[in-house]
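FAQ: What does a multi-protein file look like?

Like this. Sequence, then tokens, then the next protein.
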Amino acid sequence: MKKFHEDMMIYILLRFPVKSLLRFKCISKVYYTLILSNTFVKLHLNRIRTTKDEFVLFIRTFREEPDQLKSIASFFSCDDNNDLNTLSPDLDVSDLTSTCDTIFNQLIGPSHGLIALTDSFIIIVLNPATRKYIVLPPSPFGCPKGYHRSVEGIGFGFDSIVNDYKVVRLSDVYWDPPTDYPGPREPKVDIYDLGIDSWRELDVEFPPIYYLPCSEMYYKEAVHWFIVTETVVIFCFDISTETFRTMKMPGSCTFFDGPRYGLAILNGHLTLICYPDPMSSIDPTEDLIEIWMMKEYGASESWIKIYTIKPVPIPIESPLAIWKDHLLLLQTKRGFLISYDLNSNDVKEFNLNCNFESLRVVVYTESLTAISRISEHGTKVQQF
């Protein structure tokens, strides 16, 4: 390799997966310095990719005892038969679960290969390829005695202006009287900057978040949720400008008391999944799933319906993600994972189950992105 020009050596190394590159660091100081350099990391991040480079991270929770939960993170690739292949042993992330309720556990991202895992109170940022992670310090912003703070949404992403990663936490603070009426709502926004290892408050208000399991989507340096105005709309927070905005949904997918909604990425576009309310008593033969794609991001008039899926034979709780641009991953009412092939209409059930409504999925591609530690006294980066 010493006979090759450095540019040629970089070109060759860019074709290797992260696992191999991490091993190549041990060859020499030259390789070590090159592979960990910001230039190489960015080149590797922006190299040409295909859906074969996509992997999935699952988080699922089991109730071992009435008051004891166990959460597991699982990493998979997919073969040509659309079967799951284990990338690495399951990771016990039980410390992530700080409450007895797992419905609000979320996976957010990826952002340059980094993913945030959260149960709203404990937040972990990890790189599944390098197996590095950091547990964020708790937000110092609580609420006065006699009040209750309810975390309504979490976001994570990259700020290209300051070249930094951020976590945003949306909360509502209520007066907590000994009655059923919680009192007036006061919205709060907290921002955590990974580059300076610090929380700060943002002086901005937001409407109540309409929680749905397949939301909190990161796309185009913005985090997306749902809110209800006169209809259901997509609510966005731009990581760089730290401002909120809204986007309209397709006209037939705006009803609060009708179908449920989820967000995904398909062929590089923001995608809306309209699916039947799992609590509805509608005849299963009418339970269609519609998939809409926003051809031009931010232009509500560019929504087009690309799929209408006939009822699948297994009752569905919620969609989870779209993988490899043709596999719609869904969670069944029994807590199992199934896939629906958008090309062949084949349905496959996997032996991957969990506690009711606790299955979460994020699709990612591997990267060398480092989780920086700004000082020896800062939050510690750990290895799993």
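And here is the next protein:
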Amino acid sequence: MPSYTFHCKTCGNFTLFFSTMKGNKSHANCPNCSLESNRVYYPPNLYSYSKELRTRIERGMEPRKMTIEELGPKRTKKSSNLQRPWQVGH
């Protein structure tokens, strides 16, 4: 269930949970004073991800161009000695 944080000018921040992600969630009424409040946008929760994934997200999703030397030597696929051909890939 997605949660959204809003800021009320009189009561401060509050969080609401919605059952769907449909619709415009930029404004909501404060549960205490019923004033219209604006949504607060926070950066994604990245601290639980690995360092490699965090740096990849921070750099952007554009793939990096690599040279043949960076890819390393071409590996040949080992031919598997299958004794049970009905179990291919297991």
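Q: Is there any per-entry metadata?
A: Some entries carry free-text notes. For the entry above: The chain has two helices and four strands.
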